[in-house]
């Protein structure tokens, strides 16, 4: 039995030496060290040996197994190293090739317009305020002098969730909330950009979801001339120093008096063309002096405090500034349209 083990050791080591790939080496491992291998068969006959011979043959069997296993492992390491060198040689990378271009996105046109508006008003000392898009009936309507039964509260105009909750129809509730937080004793100078929602049919100039930027100033001795000065500065910075503005009488429930602001037509310089429908002017936003009722509901004494408010649509500003003819372009995510306004 001792001679048989030594013979198996010599055979196995020779076959390990002759193995030229990992598969052949694995076959040697299974053949000699597996459960059905010849070494295992030899060990099964140890029961016929005397007590003195058993430990000697057992130790020899273990030495033979270990010798074969070590030889296989050493050979495996060499074959794996050789295989890796061959793979690296076959898969070499040409580092001189140009890299694949990475296409970097940019801000959406509306995002850029809103940020530009924010920068303009921050430069004039305004704060940026935000509020919830799901708003209460009180802040969306009642606090803005829109009592129950007012036409603007019609269900056809608003997305109601419950009788007291709806998707805000304008960002004006942020103004009401801000004044309420001031408790009627602090001055306010703020703008509030954000999304608003109305039940409208989508077409080239209307959308059920759009954006607004509204502004509010409340303090002592605020006059209509202050409003005109702020709007004039905004128009010239946004559209160019050559643009003129005009204020026309209008009506809004939360301002009194109310006005609409027009800017002189960029295309014709105020002479009249198809863009401005021959008037030389293009409507841009609504504004007015804050209604005394709105001030009073927010806790301000209208005998001491006064203020002005204005609201504009970034979509309309973008359409006028860049000549976009359909509001739906802003929301359909056509990459060809969006890339035109990406500033690298």
Report what the structure shows.
Its cofactor is Mg(2+). GO terms for molecular function: ligase activity. It catalyses: tRNA(Phe) + L-phenylalanine + ATP = L-phenylalanyl-tRNA(Phe) + AMP + diphosphate + H(+). This protein is of the alpha+beta class. It folds into two domains: 2-90; 109-339, Bira Bifunctional Protein, Domain 2 (BirA Bifunctional Protein, domain 2, 2-Layer Sandwich), CATH 3.30.930.10. It has eleven helices and ten strands. The chain has helices at residues 2-18, 22-33, 38-44, 53-90, 109-122, 137-140, 172-182, 224-239, 292-297, 314-322, 335-339; strands at residues 127-128, 134-136, 159-160, 165-167, 188-197, 209-220, 245-252, 255-264, 281-290, 305-312. A hairpin with a 2-residue loop joins strand 7 (245-252) and strand 8 (255-264). The longest helix has 38 residues, at 53-90. 28% of the residues are buried.
The CATH homologous superfamily of the largest domain is termed Bira Bifunctional Protein, Domain 2
Oligomer: single chain
CATH top level of the largest domain is Alpha Beta
Average pLDDT works out at 86
Kindly report the CATH topology of the largest domain: BirA Bifunctional Protein, domain 2
Compute the number of helices: 11
What's the arrangement of strands in the largest beta sheet? 1-5-6-10-9-8-7
- The helix/strand class is alpha+beta
How much beta, percentage-wise? 15-25%
List low-confidence stretches. none
Number of domains: 2
Largest sheet: 7 strands, mixed
Task: Categorize the overall geometry.
Answer: elongated
CA(first)-CA(last) distance: 83 Å
Radius of gyration: 41 Å
CATH architecture of the largest domain: 2-Layer Sandwich
Considering DSSP H and I runs of 4 or more, what fraction of the residues is helical? 40-55%
């Amino acid at each position: 039995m001792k001679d048989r083990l030594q013979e198996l050791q010599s055979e196995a080591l020779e076959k390990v030496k002759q193995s030229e790939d990992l598969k052949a080496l694995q076959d040697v491992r299974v053949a000699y060290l597996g459960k059905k291998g010849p070494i295992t068969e030899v060990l099964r006959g140890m029961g016929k040996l005397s007590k003195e011979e058993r430990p000697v043959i057992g130790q020899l069997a273990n030495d033979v197994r270990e010798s074969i296993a070590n030889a296989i492992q050493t050979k495996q390491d060499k074959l794996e190293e050789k295989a890796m060198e061959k793979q690296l040689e076959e898969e070499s990378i040409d580092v001189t090739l140009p890299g694949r271009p990475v296409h970097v996105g940019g801000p959406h046109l509306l995002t850029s317009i809103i940020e530009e508006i924010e920068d303009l008003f921050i430069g004039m000392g305004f704060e940026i305020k935000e509020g919830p898009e799901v708003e209460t009936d009180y802040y969306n309507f009642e606090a803005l002098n829109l009592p129950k039964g007012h036409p603007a509260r019609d269900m056809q105009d608003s997305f109601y969730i419950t009788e007291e909750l709806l998707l805000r129809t304008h960002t004006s509730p942020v103004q009401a909330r801000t004044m309420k937080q001031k408790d009627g004793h602090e001055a306010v100078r703020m703008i509030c950009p954000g999304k608003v929602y109305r039940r409208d049919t989508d077409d080239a100039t209307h959308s059920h979801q759009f954006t607004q930027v509204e502004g509010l100033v409340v303090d002592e001795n605020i006059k209509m001339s202050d409003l005109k000065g702020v709007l004039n500065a905004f128009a010239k910075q946004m559209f160019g120093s050559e643009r003129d503005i005009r204020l026309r009488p209008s009506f809004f429930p939360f301002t009194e008096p109310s006005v609409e602001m027009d800017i002189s037509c960029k295309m014709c310089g105020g002479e009249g063309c198809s863009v401005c429908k021959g008037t030389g002017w293009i409507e841009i936003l609504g504004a007015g002096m804050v209604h005394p009722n709105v001030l009073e509901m927010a806790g301000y004494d209208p005998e001491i405090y006064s203020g002005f408010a204005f609201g504009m649509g970034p979509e309309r500003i973008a359409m006028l500034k860049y000549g976009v003819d359909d509001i739906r372009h802003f929301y359909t995510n056509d990459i060809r349209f969006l890339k035109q306004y990406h500033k690298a």
